[in-house]
Amino acid sequence: MHSERIEELCEFCPTLLERYWFNGPLMSCGSAVAIPAVGSLVPGYLLVLPLRHVVNASLLSPGERAEFADFVQSVQVRLSAVYDRPVTMFEHGGCESEERPRSSCVDHAHVHLVPGVYNLPAATPGRPERHDSWCEFMESEPKGPYLACSDADGTVWQFPDVRRPQFYRRVVAKSLGMADHWDYALHPQWENVRRTYADFSSARD
Predict the structure, then answer these.
(1) Phi and psi, residue 130, nearest 5°
(2) Sequence-distant (≥ 6) Cβ neighbours of residue 16 within 8 angstroms
């Protein structure tokens, strides 16, 4: 399928993004946006995505990766201030083969930011690579598929993909005592989406 056609069908590309989100991005930097996640397991659950269509964030150009990493970390700081909690980050880094099993369920790069600490590294099988920050992780060479998650101190751990759909959402949902609600399509959690918009609006006042 031609890239133009893919971008027309992708819910995270600009062609559909305006129709997909009823109240627009919460933050933007020109090349990326932060939006509440469908399936928000808690208020403040955000997705940060580049506007250019790539299947995982490591496939951006070096300059784009640096800008994207800076933006992700600025969103993390803002989110932590709004909810007065640490923020966990993770990415299900997809691959370009649609036939290969992977944890990513949307073929457009997006990083999850979730208020709270969920000890994702301990829940992930495999031998990880360690990075001191999201910016350092994004400086590494393009790759995929992979899992990447932040530790409580901001360390980022990169693991081989376990090829289980929405793997880290399953871990977070179980930690919250709602293990059956990991699937965003079955449990969109619209009330938490609305609450996120309201919380960010109140924080500006």
Answers:
(1) -100, 135
(2) 8, 9, 10
CA 20, distance to chain mean position in Å, is 17
- Residue 36 gets which letter from DSSP? E
Question: Cα dihedral sign for 12, 28, 169, 65?
Answer: positive
pLDDT, tens only, 32-88: 999 999 999 999 999 999 988 888 888 889 999 999 999 999 999 999 999 999 999
Cβ atoms 28, 34 nearer than 8 A? yes
Rounded CA gap, 97 and 173, in Å?
28
d(CA 171, CA 153): 19
Cβ contacts of residue 127 below 8 Å, gap of 6+?
Answer: 159, 160
From CA 18, how far away is CA 29, in angstroms rounded?
Answer: 16
Separation CA 92–CA 166 (nearest Å): 8
What residues are paired with 160 via a beta bridge? 146
Closest CA to 53 of 98, 112, 9: 9
Domains of the chain: which residue ranges? 22-204
Model pTM? 0.88
In the CATH hierarchy, which top-level class contains the domain 22-204? alpha beta
Question: Which DSSP symbol is given to 201?
Answer: H
112 forms beta bridges with 47, 90
Look at the alpha carbons of 132, 133, 138, 142 in this order and tell me if their dihedral is positive or negative: positive
